Amino acid sequence: MNTLSPQVARGVLESPSAWLRQLAETLRGAEGIHALAIDTDGIDGSEDNAGALFAPEDWARARAGGLDPVDYLSRNDAYTFFAALDDLIVTGPTRTNVNDFRAILLLPRTP
Hints:
alpha+beta, glycerate kinase, domain 1, 34% helix, 18% strand, globular
């Protein structure tokens, strides 16, 4: 399994969706690992989404749909990547910018 890039580890990818896209590439559909990343103000950088979510099956859906996650990260275009998967989280502006929120859910492996 890959590790997070030095950019992500240092927090250079400030957009929650960009961080999540990198995590998705790292996990590559690992069983039982779900994640989401959002801005509490409802705006992910300059886009109209608050963030995005990613489930294990989304990696295969992306590849089957002709999406190259590495290409989207190199172009800093997580928005289009998650929009194509219908995985954007859109809340509208909350006018409360507390912090970025990230959550990773680890489900037990099935025997």
